[in-house]
Amino acid sequence: MLSMEAKVGDSAQTRVMAATAEDVPMSTTVIEAIAELESTRPMALDVTLYDAIDLDALDSLCTASSGGVEVSFTVDDYDIEVRADDTVVVERR
User: Fold this and answer.
1) What is the distance between the alpha carbons of residues 4 and 90, in angstroms, rounded to a whole number?
2) What is the pLDDT of residues 9-34, one digit of tens each?
């Protein structure tokens, strides 16, 4: 469902890239990428993504996009970039 690549620095992950599957909402991919970065399960995260961005709007924007939409935002200690090719990059600040 999700392919990950991690860039490792100083023995801890600082960045994760995730590709979303066709039937997975972009907001779910973002949460899964943060969980991968933290080496935990999505439900164990102490991150409230909906405080930073409207999840329905993110999902709709990415579903309706024809490859030209990119979104960047910050939530807690993470910089998040949703790219036009339906990949998500999460970087710990």
Assistant:
1) 11
2) 444 568 888 777 778 899 999 999 99
Say whether 59 sits in a helix, a strand or coil. Answer: helix
Decide: 50 and 56 in contact? Cβ < 8 Å.
no
Cα–Cα distance between 41 and 93 in angstroms, integer? 20
Query: Could you list the residue range(s) of the whole structural domain that residue 51 is in?
Result: 3-92
Say if residues 87 and 17 touch (Cβ distance below 8 Å): yes
pLDDT at residue 4 tops 60: no
Number of domains in the chain: 1
pLDDT tens digits along 62-81: 876 556 789 999 999 999 99
